[in-house]
Design a protein that fits this description.
Number of helices: 18
CATH class of the domain at 300-321 and 368-597: Mainly Alpha
Largest sheet: 5 strands, mixed, barrel
Mean pLDDT: 95
CATH topology of the domain at 300-321 and 368-597: Butyryl-CoA Dehydrogenase, subunit A, domain 3
Helix content: 40-55%
CATH architecture of the domain at 300-321 and 368-597: Up-down Bundle
Structural class: alpha+beta
Shape: globular
Distance between the termini: 43 Å
Number of strands: 14
Low-confidence stretches: none
CATH superfamily of the domain at 300-321 and 368-597: Butyryl-CoA Dehydrogenase, subunit A, domain 3
Strand order of the largest sheet: 4-5-12-7-6
Length: about 625
């Protein structure tokens, strides 16, 4: 793969189906607060975003991977072309589609924003992390900051003038944020002196924005240990002058940048705050010791964003592998495998290649549906707030419940699916002439940062399922159950719906098993031992349900188009995505439920010494 050549591709028809036909974008758009939006406007934005992704970001993906970032005289420089792409990104408004007009944005529904982000991330995940983190940090200041802070920081961070980060992780603590040692000392003027070291800070420094606004978790002198004693601070790289411009350095230095397996175009920094005891920050808002709750407002958005990264790369890997399979000729057709004179067939004719392609296709479509469904719940919760509080509460609850699924399942599957795309290419996929090897390396980080898969799983079983007395989980299961009852006798999909029903029953039984463990202290270790499995089970039920829902919609739509119409084959594809997933993935839920009941504690029973004799 030559540097500077775009390899990104997707299928806008597929995205339009999910957005407009399956989840009814037109029923959300056109109503307050999305009055200015409709399907035509959304299609125009997505078409233009796809053009930008292919013409500007796509060609820089391999450039960023090969060049990486570098540190010179304490400053980070991004790969060739990134700075110009940053400027164009904001000039053309792609990062402000979903931003509130109050802060200079276009105010679209979240359903559209997540699809825009998929295109940008799919084309160049490493690049899109920089503006993504600035967006998340700005949202925290917009929601939790004082009016003066909102005025000073938010719009500049959203329009690309300033970048932004979140700084949680420390060398000794890792994901144990409560063990943070960074400190904040009160100054007489209401500011704080910040001191400490943060690691793995994505976009921690770069040359694309005038300034970078760090959101830093630190413990004010005398505050209690653990997460409850942490506060969140706004710490600019450059101090802000009275007129709002960027001024002198604020004693924030880059210790180093990490040399990584993937996303090499994203600067992952070690940042040192206050080495010269001259780093000044201000509290986000006016209340001390609420830093974790404030940071989680950004963290939840970041977790959804990681799910979007996952679908972006898995989708890109799929369409590249599909094109290769149609073009590459190797071996004879399977019906003529004994005939040495038979012509070479395109590898898409080989059964195992077709199996792998359909596996990727089904997962990509189902995970995209899951992400857009979550976004739909966000939009409806916002629309219904103050009008129908019960309905708004339902939608908010589903957002809470689905967030760990979106983050964990999409990120885990992205790595697996990208690796499977390599398998479709064979040896060609393992070399840098084709993009799937980079997609695979880039995607591995998704299941690690912003909370590992296990952190998401424990969040699901330890917190989200019990919220509102278990109501959110019960409503989710009720939604799946209503779908099953409505369609279990369907002429085409009835048997697949029954497979979904069996998976749902197994999931509910497993939920009761996990609940029982939570009531028995002696069995508590079984919860962290089984949490990842349970999250995967629930994700498979959710995706299987949404694929069948899409297939039923497509079945009706197919009847209205002729056999020679392009949409006829498209709708047929929805059918086989759903049937393949129902027949080949949903039965895994029942098997996983059986394994849960064995209450295997062997990982806890084995001694440390028994792991190895070395």
């Amino acid at each position: 793969m030559s540097a500077g050549i775009n390899t990104y591709k997707t299928d806008l028809r597929e995205i339009f189906f999910t957005l407009f036909e399956q989840f009814g974008f037109g029923q959300v758009a056109g109503q307050a607060p999305f009055d200015a939006w409709g399907p035509d406007e959304a299609k125009a934005v997505l078409t233009e975003t796809y053009r930008f992704a292919r013409e500007v970001l796509g060609p820089l993906n391999s450039v960023g991977d090969r060049e990486g970032c570098r540190v010179e005289n304490g400053a980070v420089f991004t790969p060739t072309g990134f700075k110009d792409a940053w400027k164009k990104l904001y000039e053309q408004g792609f990062k402000t589609v979903g931003v509130s007009p109050e802060h200079g944005g276009q105010g679209s529904p979240m359903m559209l924003q997540v699809t825009v982000e998929e295109l940008l991330s799919g084309a160049n995940s490493a690049f899109n992390m920089y503006p993504g983190l600035a967006f998340g940090a700005a949202e925290v200041v917009a929601e939790c900051g004082t009016p003066a802070q909102q005025k000073q920081f938010v719009e500049r961070m959203l329009n690309g003038t300033w970048g932004g980060t979140m700084c949680l992780t420390e060398p000794h603590a890792g994901s144990d944020v409560g063990a943070a040692k960074s400190t904040a000392r009160r100054n007489g003027d209401g500011t704080y002196n910040i001191r400490g070291t943060k690691i793995f800070i994505s976009g921690g420094d770069h040359d694309m924005a005038e300034n970078i606004i760090h959101l830093v978790l630190a413990r004010i002198d005398g505050a209690s240990p653990g997460t409850k004693g942490l506060s969140l601070f706004i710490v600019p790289k450059l101090r802000i002058n009275a007129d709002g411009s960027s001024g002198q350095a604020n004693d924030v230095s880059v210790g180093s940048i990490e040399h990584k397996m993937g996303i090499n175009g994203s600067a992952t920094c070690v940042l040192n705050f206050g080495e010269n005891d001259n780093c000044v920050g201000e509290l986000v808002g006016t209340v001390e010791h609420v830093g974790m709750s404030q940071m989680f407002k950004m963290m939840n958005g970041a977790r959804i964003a990681v799910g979007i990264q996952g679908i972006g790369l898995a989708s890109a890997a799929y369409y590249n592998a599909l094109d290769y399979a149609k073009d590459r000729k190797q071996g004879s057709h399977f019906t003529k495998w004994k005939d040495p004179t038979a012509p070479r067939a395109a590898i898409i004719e080989h059964p195992d290649v077709r199996r792998m392609l359909l596996d990727i296709k089904a997962h990509v479509e189902g995970i995209r549906s899951l992400i857009i469904k979550l976004a739909m719940h966000l939009d409806k919760a916002r629309q219904l707030a103050g009008k129908d509080d019960d309905a708004a509460t339902y939608h908010k609850g589903q957002v809470e419940l689905l967030t760990p699924l979106v983050k964990a399942y999409s990120s885990e599957q992205a790595f697996r699916l990208c690796a499977q795309a390599i398998q479709i290419y064979g040896g060609a996929g393992y070399i840098q002439d084709y993009p799937v090897e980079q997609y695979t390396r880039d995607s591995k980080i998704f299941s690690i940062y912003e909370g590992t898969t296990h952190i998401q799983a424990m969040d699901l079983v330890g917190r989200k399922m019990g919220q509102a007395g278990g109501m959110h989980f019960q409503q989710f299961m009720g939604d799946v159950g209503s779908f099953i009852e409505a369609h279990r006798e369907h002429a085409v999909y009835g048997e697949a719906v029954k497979l979904l029903a069996a998976a749902q029953e197994a999931l509910m039984a497993s939920a009761m098993v996990v609940f029982g463990w939570s009531q028995d202290g002696s069995k508590f270790p079984l919860i962290p031992l089984s949490a990842n499995r349970f999250l995967n089970m629930m994700s498979e039920v959710a995706v299987g349900w949404l694929l069948l829902d899409a297939a039923l919609i497509a079945e009706k739509a197919k009847a209205s188009v002729g056999a020679d119409h392009p949409d006829h084959a498209f709708y047929e594809g929805k059918k086989y995505s759903a049937l393949w997933y129902a027949r080949n993935v949903l039965p895994n839920v029942e098997q996983a439920a059986k394994m849960l009941t064995t209450e295997d504690t062997s990982p806890m029973d084995i001694s440390d010494a028994a792991f190895a004799s070395v």
